[in-house]
Design goal:
With 148 residues, the protein is α+β, with helices and mostly antiparallel strands. The chain is built from one helix and seven strands, in the order αβββββββ.
Length: 148
């Protein structure tokens, strides 16, 4: 079996790794004091014509332990997955899921209408809808034919 190599996939992977490494420092420089992240939740951030949609895997986190802000064209997602203390009858045999605080900062390439941002947490997936300002959305311009 021949395996195809895609050099752009390696570049995209490297870019994502650099983004995660610099994430804390960017927050420190642009928002405020450095916050230690104990783990990094997986996210998808998709841009559409009129909005951005962020989906984050936050299973086991109560919505009161999640914070979402849009500041200076950046989406800031913070939260904490708390480790439940075992009862006297329990002892941990294996702990593989990450626990503790996290912070993610996502630069947004277009202005977001902060008044219309909304979020929902369902089945452990946080979905944040970030509508763009109407002046920032793309408008298709028809081209007229003037051959006559």
């Amino acid at each position: 079996m021949v395996k195809r190599w895609d050099p752009f996939k390696d570049i995209a992977h490297l870019s994502e790794m650099m983004s995660r490494l610099l994430n804390e420092e960017i927050h420190h420089l642009t928002i405020g004091p450095k916050v230690q992240s104990d783990w990094t939740p997986a996210v998808d951030l998709v841009e559409m014509d009129d909005m951005f949609v962020l989906k984050a895997d936050l299973a086991g986190i109560d919505r009161k332990d999640i914070s979402i802000e849009v500041i200076d064209c950046q989406l800031i997602l913070k939260g904490e997955r708390k480790l439940r203390k075992p009862s006297s009858e329990e002892k941990h045999f294996r702990l593989e899921r990450p626990y503790g605080k996290f912070i993610r900062v996502f630069p947004l390439p277009s202005e977001v209408d902060c008044a219309k941002v909304h979020a929902a947490l369902q089945d452990g997936v946080l979905e944040v809808i970030l509508p763009k300002n109407e002046s920032q959305t793309a408008h298709k311009i028809p081209i007229k034919c003037e051959l006559e």
